[in-house]
């Protein structure tokens, strides 16, 4: 058993396992924190951003002032945002036989792997993972492609030049390997290589290894994987949750008696209790709206947003917010809301029971029906006619570098009545806000991360009685 | 049930000591005890739970699940019942419907109650497609997509390396709302397949659809009423999609109704379980949900007497009771009207009678109903036809086939065809009959580590991709098998060792001296057996490993030499190889 770790990001793993002469890639997460070094992509011409001064070196030389801009003491790259790919030098990725995906957040680098490395194998993932993963990719591609940027900065990446830059640009690693976003044809080609699997389905690989996905309780269709030969059992536990939210609960029993347990995707904010954070989210939201302000929630188009909407569904009447409009803006908002209702088999027991009635499993169906929640593909078109303030807006991207969220940051940033509430844990909220400083708007950090924390991990390890555990 | 018959599907499979009951249906043709399977076949006086390891329900049609509450709550069964999620969702609704018709309308007592249906459903475990469900340590089941109706599945039942596949009802051609059945090459020992359309090879679906639309259109144009008896879920949705698109395209105004309050609910199930429908519907559901109908409205009983044309979908599908039968009685007398039977009708039902040409029906109370309306039959029921059944057999490659859920005569024909084409045995037992199928189970044997090490040390290095021959003694003790070294076996069994030696004579034409022949043999073997130790001993004999070869003169013929080849039983393989090698003679010229 040989393992290579190709990603430096703790919750967006990419590992390669060599086992019984089979090469298996476990997840291919895309580290998007690199985009924090770039200027936001505004949907509407932003005078503030376009007037930012170019960055000048200490010795006064100005040759970088087209590529780098300065904003409140921070330096940003003025270019199409780029992503930090999984390591491709460590081993020849064309030798990878299969890729196992554990959840839709951990497949965002898939087009880079399947389309650029000579990969000829098969990708395995569950149906919700593929469908929602497609939506996340579509949103990403769409939000970058709709703001064409003439400039693609490369001078600053020169090793000699980079040395002279201020942190964090100076310390960014492997910047020459950073890549621009993929395109929709590449996404479609990558997704066509995926074979759909169900929980507890046994898949034979070349007669040597058997792999089986198990419910991991973290997201719709999220899975852990058992990789076993006749006499050895390796468990890959990635992005798992023991809390009861909307997905099917985690299957722990099947992990028992593993020879090796590979553990990734643990929460990075173990002190933030998700329930407490949801409570704080609701009270901050209510307070802002009551004072006549708007609330901005930067989020992904699927996942925690379903839980937040469900909480709000129960909360708004008691908090007297029945007349406040909730807007969900994303090119895939409609699809995400529709898809969430058709995966009954992948949901927790309570939601499954609802489908048997038959009723939609998520209450956001009712929020939409009663016009309390409205969804739009973008801020252009219908939204501009319907838009009423004060309101609550859910939109992406959580990095605040692209997507409709950029517009709302520019629009509402100047007023202290408004609040931006961060719920996604992947990005540091201070870094995300840096190019919008100075900011009058209130900022609340309520990260909701249901993934395993250290206490839960040690309990899990005790229960499943593993021989060895590995934390890449 | 379902042995040379359609109705009350219920099959008991005993496989490697496990007992599995497949389906638990009712029979639409009977109103007496025969409507349910006879569970005394399972056990005369024990509890069913003790005898059955699990029950599997293939889909929600009543002829496959209609007896389930009776079986679990009235006869008594507390073990697990497996079905897919959509089946689990829809099954209780149809059971409740069935109960209402039987108890409330026909006034029968001693039938299962609503509470029993609920209690029965609590025993149900829902399964995913392709999920391997471990019923217990040895028994596992796996569901495959079957088409037919929403949530219909085929099931593979596996114990060790023995397996059975039960198809339930399936459809090998995708239709307007469902995909086609699919199974991998799982090579089961037995495939139990339905054979409703064992002899039919249906023309293309498009033709049937065009025919159907033409008939409906013509009747409506001349002011007639069209009755389409259907079951609430399944064919109804397919035909609704068909008529909806046709009405839209042709801009027709005649009303279309769906008879029971179940429609909207039924359509809702299709919306929520859209992942079980066909690719096209799944792909476009965000933009346009095919199960939201514009032209099809809910039916009210009073509408039946309205003047003018209309199309009504009414339940149940075989005209054996309920609203479809009521409307049929109202409309039967008018030759302008038409009834279209889109599916199979079981013997004994009104549907079956009018399809077989009967035009005077005796109804309840000796009343005679004269049927003047046009009667059309159109096979829309989503069963595999003969071609489809053969296709499934080709896909799964079973070693034996067993036909159920069809008529004896038609089965006979299909059985011959299957035996001819696939050279596998095909069975078609009647109800109550038992078929025994012999299998070739593989038996795992534990090898002792010492023997394994010793054997792998001999000869070329082991290759994971090639089988390797090993020598040892097989011990069968306490129901387990072990391969150990002969010495250990002798020791464990307290036996003394006997040596067994083979000697073989090989005649060779060679006029030379014995020792020269010996040398030729030596050179010959040395040249061929590069990996073995071949030695020429001073006394003229040759050894290959432990095998001894001696050349002696023939007592009568000077031109012939006799080679004595001698080996122990342990070296049988090499010994017999050498013998056959030497029998081929020596090369003409020695180097």
UniProtKB/TrEMBL annotation, chain A:
It is found in: Cytoplasm; Nucleus. The keyword Nucleus applies. Residues 305-433 form the Beta-Casp domain. One of its GO terms (biological process) is snRNA 3'-end processing. Its main location: cytoplasm. CDD domains: Int9-like_MBL-fold. SUPFAM superfamilies: Metallo-hydrolase/oxidoreductase (SSF56281). It comes from the Eukaryota. Keywords: Cytoplasm, Nucleus. SMART domains: Beta-Casp (SM01027). PANTHER family: INTEGRATOR COMPLEX SUBUNIT 9. Belongs to the metallo-beta-lactamase superfamily. RNA-metabolizing metallo-beta-lactamase-like family. INTS9 subfamily. This is Integrator complex subunit 9. It comes from Drymodes brunneopygia. The gene is Ints9.
Automatic annotation (TrEMBL), chain B:
Residues 236-354 form the Beta-Casp domain. SMART domains: Beta-Casp (SM01027), Lactamase_B (SM00849). InterPro entries: Beta_Casp, INTS11-like_MBL-fold, IntS11_C, MBL, Metallo-B-lactamas, RibonucZ/Hydroxyglut_hydro, RMMBL. Residues 7-224 form the Metallo-beta-lactamase domain. It is found in: Cytoplasm; Nucleus. Keywords: Cytoplasm, Hydrolase, Metal-binding, Nucleus, Zinc. GO terms for molecular function: hydrolase activity; metal ion binding; RNA endonuclease activity. GO terms for cellular component: cytoplasm; nucleus. Its cofactor is Zn(2+). One of its GO terms (biological process) is snRNA processing. Belongs to the metallo-beta-lactamase superfamily. RNA-metabolizing metallo-beta-lactamase-like family. INTS11 subfamily. This is Integrator complex subunit 11.
């Amino acid at each position: 058993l040989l393992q290579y770790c190709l990603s430096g990001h703790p919750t967006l793993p990419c590992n390669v396992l060599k086992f019984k002469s089979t090469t298996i890639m476990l997840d291919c997460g895309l580290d998007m924190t690199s985009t924090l070094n770039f200027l936001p992509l505004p949907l509407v011409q932003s005078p503030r951003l376009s007037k930012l001064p170019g960055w000048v070196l200490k010795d006064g030389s100005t040759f970088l002032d087209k590529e780098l801009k300065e904003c409140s003491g921070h330096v940003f790259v003025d270019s199409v945002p780029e992503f930090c790919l999984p390591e491709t030098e460590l081993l020849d990725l064309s030798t990878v036989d299969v890729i196992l995906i554990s959840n839709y957040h951990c497949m965002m680098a898939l087009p880079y792997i399947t389309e650029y490395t000579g990969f000829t194998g098969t990708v395995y993932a569950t149906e919700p993972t593929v469908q929602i993963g497609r939506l996340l990719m579509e949103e990403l591609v769409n939000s970058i492609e709709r703001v064409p940027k003439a400039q693609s900065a490369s001078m600053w990446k020169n090793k000699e030049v980079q040395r002279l830059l201020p942190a964090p640009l100076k310390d960014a690693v492997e910047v020459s390997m950073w890549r621009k976003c993929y395109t929709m044809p590449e996404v479609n080609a990558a997704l066509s290589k995926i074979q759909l699997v169900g929980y507890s389905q046994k898949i034979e690989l070349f007669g040597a290894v058997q792999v089986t996905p198990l419910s991991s309780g973290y997201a719709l269709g999220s899975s852990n994987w058992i990789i076993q030969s006749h006499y050895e059992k390796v468990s890959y536990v990635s992005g798992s949750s023991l809390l009861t939210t909307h997905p099917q609960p985690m299957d722990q029993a099947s992990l028992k008696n593993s020879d090796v347990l590979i553990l990734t995707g643990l929460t990075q904010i173990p002190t933030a209790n998700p329930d407490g954070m949801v409570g704080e989210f609701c009270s901050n939201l209510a307070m802002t709206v009551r004072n006549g302000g708007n609330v901005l929630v930067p989020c992904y188009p699927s996942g925690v947003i379903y839980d937040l909407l469900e909480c709000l569904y129960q909360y708004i009447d008691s908090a007297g917010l029945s007349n406040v409009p909730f807007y969900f803006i994303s090119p895939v908002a409609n699809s995400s809301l529709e898809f969430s209702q058709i995966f009954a088999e992948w949901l927790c027991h309570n939601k499954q029971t609802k489908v048997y009635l038959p009723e939609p499993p998520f209450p956001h169906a009712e929020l939409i029906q009663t016009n309390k929640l409205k969804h739009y593909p973008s801020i252009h078109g219908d939204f501009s006619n319907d838009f009423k303030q004060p309101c609550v807006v859910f939109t992406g991207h959580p990095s605040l570098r692209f997507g409709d969220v950029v517009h709302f940051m520019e629009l509402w940033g100047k007023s202290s009545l408004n609040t931006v509430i961060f719920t996604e844990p992947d990005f540091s909220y201070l870094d995300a806000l840096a190019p919008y400083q100075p900011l009058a708007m209130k900022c609340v950090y309520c990260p909701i991360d249901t993934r395993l924390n250290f206490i839960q991990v040690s309990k899990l390890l005790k229960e499943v009685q593993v021989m060895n555990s590995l934390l890449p | 049930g379902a042995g040379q018959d359609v109705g009350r599907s219920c099959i008991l499979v005993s496989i490697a000591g496990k007992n599995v009951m497949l389906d638990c249906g009712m029979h639409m043709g009977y109103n007496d005890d025969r409507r349910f399977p006879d569970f005394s076949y399972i056990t005369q006086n024990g509890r069913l739970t003790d005898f059955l390891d699990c029950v599997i329900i293939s889909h929600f049609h009543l002829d496959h699940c209609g007896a389930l509450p009776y079986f679990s709550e009235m006869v008594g069964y507390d073990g697990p019942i497996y079905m897919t999620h959509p089946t689990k969702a829809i099954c209780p609704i149809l059971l409740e419907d069935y109960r209402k018709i039987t108890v409330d309308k026909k006034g029968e007592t001693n039938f299962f109650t609503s509470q029993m249906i609920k209690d029965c459903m609590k025993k149900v475990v829902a399964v995913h497609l392709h999920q391997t469900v471990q019923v217990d340590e040895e028994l596992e089941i796996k569901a495959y997509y079957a088409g037919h109706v929403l949530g219909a599945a085929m099931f593979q039942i596996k114990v060790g390396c023995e397996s059975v596949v039960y198809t339930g009802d399936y459809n090998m051609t995708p239709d307007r709302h469902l995909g086609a059945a699919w199974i991998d090459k799982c090579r089961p020992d037995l495939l139990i397949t339905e054979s409703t359309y064992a002899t039919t090879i249906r023309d293309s679906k498009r033709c049937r659809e065009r025919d159907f639309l033409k008939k409906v259109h013509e009747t409506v144009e001349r002011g007639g009423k069209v009755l389409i008896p259907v079951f609430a879920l399944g064919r109804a949705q397919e035909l609704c999609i068909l008529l909806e698109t046709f009405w839209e395209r042709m801009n027709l105004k005649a009303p279309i109704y769906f008879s029971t309050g179940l429609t909207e609910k039924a359509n809702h199930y299709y919306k929520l379980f859209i992942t079980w429908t066909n690719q096209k519907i799944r792909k476009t559901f965000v933009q346009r949900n095919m199960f939201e109908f514009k032209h099809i409205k809910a039916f009210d009983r009073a509408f039946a007497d309205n003047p003018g044309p209309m199309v009504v979908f009414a339940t149940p599908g075989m005209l054996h009771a309920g609203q479809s039968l009521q409307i049929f009685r109202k409309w039967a007398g008018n030759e302008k009207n038409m009834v279209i039977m889109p599916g199979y009708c079981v013997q004994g039902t009104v549907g079956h009678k009018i399809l077989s040409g009967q035009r005077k029906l005796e109804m309840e109370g000796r009343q005679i109903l004269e049927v003047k309306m046009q009667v059309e039959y159109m096979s829309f029921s989503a069963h595999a036809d003969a071609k489809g059944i053969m296709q499934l057999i080709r896909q799964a490659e079973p070693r034996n086939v067993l036909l159920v859920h069809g008529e004896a005569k038609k089965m006979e024909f299909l059985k011959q065809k299957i035996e001819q084409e696939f050279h596998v045995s095909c069975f078609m037992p009647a109800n109550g009959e038992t078929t025994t199928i012999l299998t070739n189970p593989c038996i795992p044997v534990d090898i002792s580590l010492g023997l394994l090490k010793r054997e792998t040390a001999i000869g070329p290095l082991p290759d994971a991709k090639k089988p390797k021959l090993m020598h040892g003694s097989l011990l069968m003790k306490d129901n387990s098998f072990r391969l150990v070294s002969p010495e250990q076996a002798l020791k464990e069994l307290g036996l003394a060792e006997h040596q067994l030696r083979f000697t073989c004579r090989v005649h060779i034409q060679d006029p030379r001296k014995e020792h020269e022949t010996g040398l030729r043999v030596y050179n010959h073997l040395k040249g061929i057996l590069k990996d073995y130790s071949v030695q020429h001993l001073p006394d003229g004999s040759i050894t290959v490993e432990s095998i001894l070869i001696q050349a002696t003169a023939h007592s009568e013929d000077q031109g012939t030499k006799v080679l004595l080849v001698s080996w122990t039983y342990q070296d049988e393989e090499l010994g017999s190889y050498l013998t056959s090698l030497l029998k081929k003679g020596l090369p003409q010229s020695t180097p």
